[in-house]
Amino acid sequence: MLSTLRISLTKFRSRSLTPFSAASMATMILERPHHHRCRHQHVVVMRHGDRLDNVNPSWLSTALRPWDPPLAEVGWDTARKTAKQLPAWLGFPIHRVIVSPYRRCVDTALGLFAGHLTPDEDPKAATGDGGLDPSKVKISIDYGLAEMFNHTAIRHPPPSPANHADWGLNIPDIEALIPLDALDNTVIPVFRELPQWEETEPDARDRYLHTIQSLADRHPSENLLLITHGEAVKVTVSTQLEDAARFRIMMDYCGYAQLKRQVIRNSNAFETGQFELLANYGQTGIHCSPRTPM
User: Fold this and answer.
1) How many distinct structural domains can be found in the chain?
2) Residue 263, strand partner residues
3) Which one, of 145, 138, 139, 142, lies nearest residue 47 by Cα?
4) Rounded CA gap, 240 and 8, in Å?
5) How far is residue 156 CA from its own chain's centroid?
């Protein structure tokens, strides 16, 4: 039987948060959770679905932006199937979806909303039946969830990768892919631009941890789904994992790690506890195995 891993993540520790007024909090909550004095906040960090260039390498020969592949048809299928299974797997509602600016992550979010559509149908026609309901759950973009910004992670960067304008990852253009009823463009991102090119792995790790913590702290009364890249999910799992270097951590497409912490509302302020990592590997698509000795 698979056991549930419970680890305190001190990197995510937060003591108290800036007070929010009751009125502003009411406008923030899209699928209103029950307001108890003491409750739990859940943050799900998910990898995107299957990318097109992995399934059809010939796509690269004609792609205008080979560094930003969309989902393959099987990726849309994976996202839609995940949408139908996720409520039962999690056992709690998602109130907000925040995604990396890359097309495969935006497509994954749309696939989760469009759980009942077939691959040839327009994802903008989604009603959320069987998945996330765009009338209650909204999508926003944050550069802090972007792919690790170096040659190791990005196989085909533009000719001048240090120039952010060459990437074409502009927020208005990305938001145009999202149906208006599923978009929240009022959220201020944690990171408003891409990292510096040739970002190191430690810098990417710090960026992911800071982004996850900040997003959770900004929305303490909501459960979040963060759609990002494999490295961010790996960081979420490996942080404070005892002897983490001894393990090889892999994740399936749409695999996810789940964080949980206690949130106490005191008048109009919030106090939060430490996050725990809850990972039933057989269910979430995370694979953690001991490394083979050299």
Assistant:
1) 1
2) 39, 272
3) 145
4) 8
5) 23
What SS3 class is residue 30? coil
**pLDDT score of 139:** 96
pLDDT over 90 percentage in the chain: 62
Domain with 149 in it: 47-218
pLDDT at 18 over 60: no
Q: What is the DSSP string of 177-213?
A: TS-GGGB-TTPPPS-SS---SS--HHHHHHHHHHHHH
- For residues 25 and 10, give the distance between their C-alpha atoms in angstroms, rounded to a whole number: 27
Q: Is residue 174 part of a domain?
A: yes
What's the mean pLDDT in 124-147? 74
Q: Which pLDDT score, from 0 to 100, does residue 114 have?
A: 82
Please provide residue 277's backbone torsions phi and psi, each rounded to the nearest 5 degrees: -95, 120
Q: At what angle do helices 201-218 and 230-238 cross, to 10 degrees?
A: 80
Q: Which of 8-17, 31-40, 56-65 has the highest mean pLDDT?
A: 56-65
CATH number, domain with residue 71: 3.40.50.1240
188-197: pLDDT as tens digits: 999 999 999 9
pLDDT at 61 over 70: yes
**What is the token pair recorded at 269?**
């302020």
Nearest CA among 109, 44, 52, 102 for reference residue 75: 52
Residue 188 lies in a domain: yes
Give which of 93, 116, 103, 27 is closest to 59, Cα–Cα: 103
Tokens found for residue 133:
């309901």
Q: Can you read off the two tokens belonging to residue 143?
A: 């550069």
What's the distance, Cα to Cα, between the start and end of the chain in Å? 29
